[in-house]
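Quick question about two entries, pasted in order.
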Amino acid sequence: MIYEYTNYRSFLKGVLANKNKRNNSYSLRAMASQLRISPALLSGVLNAHRNLSQEKAIEIASALNLNKEEI
């Protein structure tokens, strides 16, 4: 799934959309909680107002259960 995307923003948007499609009560807040980041940070990243540090990107990838190759 990750290889379909050209950048981490579109990947995260895709993850959110897929989870919301399966459970329409799944929200940006729920995803932020799962990723252990603030909803404001996630919103900022998705809307290209904020960037992720390399360390935070690795933490998020781990929370999404991506393997080393995908990370």
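Here is the second entry:
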Amino acid sequence: MADRFTGVYVALVTPMTADGEIDLVTLCGFVEHLIGRGVHGVIPLGSTGECYALDDGERRVVMSATIDQAV
């Protein structure tokens, strides 16, 4: 099956500032670091538990920033 995922995929934590805002600089740094270390994919809003606590707009921001950094 050619569509199988292979390699290492990392569930990302969503970093927050002390004020409770999404820390996009740190998030993009995480993505860049992991890709630089050879991971095959990143999973924003994965199994680290914060997804339920973010609203739709915040989820879109996290997804967009992650995608933009990864490509």
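Reply: Strands lie at 9-11, 41-43. The helical segments are 24-36, 56-70. Hope that helps.
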